[in-house]
Amino acid sequence: IETVCKFFGVTREDLFSSSKKKELTISRQIIMYFLRNLLNKSLKEISGIFKKEHPTVIYNIKTLENKLKKDLSLKMKVDYLFKEISKELSDQSSEIEYNLNDSKNSI
Known about the structure:
By secondary structure, this protein is mainly α. Helix content is 81%, strand content 0%. It has helices at residues 2-8, 12-15, 22-37, 43-50, 54-70, 72-106. Helix 3 (22-37) packs across helix 5, helix 4 packs across helix 5 (54-70) and helix 5 (54-70) crosses helix 6 (72-106). The longest helix is centred in the C-terminal third of the chain and has 35 residues, at 72-106. The N and C termini lie far apart (36 Å). Residues 98-107 have low confidence and may be disordered.
């Protein structure tokens, strides 16, 4: 969430507001898409995070997927963000593994 907010220059508060500004809408759609496809979150979990109804989450994800097929510039941005977030997640995973391995050694 923080990575997408920073990339698009939006605040977390604005992201979770009811505003329908274009940059907020696309940021929300991208985050929902990543939560679903990168982190394998359920639609119920995503709807809870955004305090949106289940069909709204589905609509937002499908809308972004359709935009990605037509808008090369947007696809490049999403691909870049996907790589950045994947890298962040793998770094966090390495830290967790290290901590787990470290604690095993001290037991």
